[in-house]
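Student: I would love a firmer grasp of how sequence relates to backbone shape in proteins. I am handing you a single protein, as its sequence and its fold in token form. I am told such tokens are a discrete way to write the fold. I hope you can help me see how the letters and the tokens relate. Take your time, and here it is.
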Amino acid sequence: MAKKATTPSAKPSKPAGEKAEKAAKPKSAAAKKTIPSVIVQKYNVHPYSRFTDFDIDLFKSGKHYKLYEKFGSHVVEHEGVVGTYFAVWAPNAKFASVIGNFNGWNRGSHGLYVRWDGSGIWEGFIPHVGNGEAYKYFIASNTGEDLEKSDPFALRWEEPPRTASIVADTYYEWNDKVWMDTRREHNALDKPYSVYEVHFGSWARSPESPDQFLSYVDMADKLVPYVKDMGFTHVEFMPIMEHPFYPSWGYQVSGYFAASSRYGTPQQLMLLIERFHQEGIGVILDWVPSHFPGDAHALYNFDGTHLYEHADMRKGFHPDWKSYIFNYGRNEVRAFLISNALFWLDRYHADGLRVDAVASMLYLDYSRNHGEWEPNVFGGNENLEAISFLKEFNEACYSHFPDIQTIAEESTSFTGVSRPVFLGGLGFGMKWMMGWMHDVIKYFGEDPVHRKYRHNQITFSLIYAFTENFMLPFSHDEVVYGKGSMLGKMPGDEWQQFANLRLLYSFMFTHPGTKLLFMGSEFGQGNEWNFQHSLDWHVMQYPNHQGIANTVKALNQLYKSEPALYEKQFDHTGFEWIDGGNADDSVLVFARKGNDAANDLVIVLNLTPVTRHDYRIGVTAGGGWKEIFNSDATSFWGSGVINYGNINAEFIGWHGRENSIKITLPPLGASVFKKI
């Protein structure tokens, strides 16, 4: 249950570990009906203003990328008086004020002043209001509407279903300097990058109360050591920005600058991120600039007009999600969004942003029928304003934080998503390889006896694998809405299902590109993901599920320890087919290469449950070879068909190579060989 917000003391409270009271006092009918009688005054420079003329010029031109330092609520001291400075953008308001517990939610008692420079900024200082105070803005619009709005720049919100903003700060004494000084190495495109995707509210729940969320602090104690033990290099959180509707999984964001209060305070989230960094694990945050909900207290119709959303609903309303689309052509909106992206990289030390639903931003006709969209000025279906925005977003992120990564969830063949802007691309560091994901899931869903007729599905990705910097994703989207779990997609009896899943993950980790795996998939959860409940951790008592977890752990270790798997993961010279055409046997043989030929690997996938003895494959060099990974190992709950000891290559031409080796192919198994 939410606590009531209390009136702060005269001195600002310490931000670290604060437990601000949250709930607002009920608004009386008299307070809600109060008609503002304050005379609106225009000021060139308000006595307490945080804006300079240069700030205003940057804001109007869309080039102010740190608006969070200016807008919102900020506790300040002026002439010995502690209070809070408020600033809000509402150009179509005829009156604006701050309402809260401190004034009984009276709309007329604390009016703001509008700047005379045409910026549409209202600002003011209220003494004796400090951290922990709940508030909203009252806006009397030129359209005749009376609106009560949460602060778009609020650093903290009440816990849903309450919707007031809370005066807060993001001060934190970070202890992750070692990571921050060296994260360029961890985030580089020629380094291992294995991501564990997490939905915060359903990774685990309190054992004592299954309906109770774990807090940021709880997750620091439980999630951090788990991710480290499993060997992932990064964790990705589905949106943890404040969102009123929990079943949206966080993708209907209302508080863009606030960590969700469901799980704790801003400083407690910082503690969690810091703990990951101290263990050498990067943190990626999902970021949603593609749409926002139409809640009455949030961004929609903010000052009685389409301020943040596009006024033309052919561009401003999303038919799939019944939500609203930002006006990417409006300078102030672009500055709002880019400032928000930099905010999470700056204040929360995030190591990357995964941008949601990029395809929906790029195309004017996305999910629209004929007549429901208007072509651009050149007659095409590309959203030129959104494309321009995404380029500017990436340029801003990488210019301010060159050691991070931005990752696009983009499902079309749009050219150059992960190419630099100066080369004509959108500027992302990586792009999800959605085509590969759909193809391999469909292929592995086939009974092995039929796979020889679908061989092109498993090999097709290598035709275009190096056109982008691809990340291979098995995300949350693949285990919801009746799609079943990753284990549930696999055919055959119980043993074959688990063997197929181990084989699928082995292909993923040896295929070029970085990796992403959604929580629960790493131990083969049988049930489809349910955001209302914890993962099925109880299945880890069974050896078959332990085997999947051990496989993923071993694959992460293999990926991180073998340069051939990451040094050229986005370069065509890092991959070579040895035998990609054996459809009849459903066997794939390929080499992965790094900067040093001595580190070359040969990977063999047997995609049928038939053990194949004395199977000859070509290798990249003569001499001795050794099997360094086998997905059929008994420690993985496999049948134990292993190639033991050293294997000497013979000078027998095979698969177009001068040298070859004879091996045994495990059933539904993957084998990785390395030159010794």
Notes: The longest strand covers residues 81-89. Residues 65 and 339 are 4 Å apart (CA to CA).
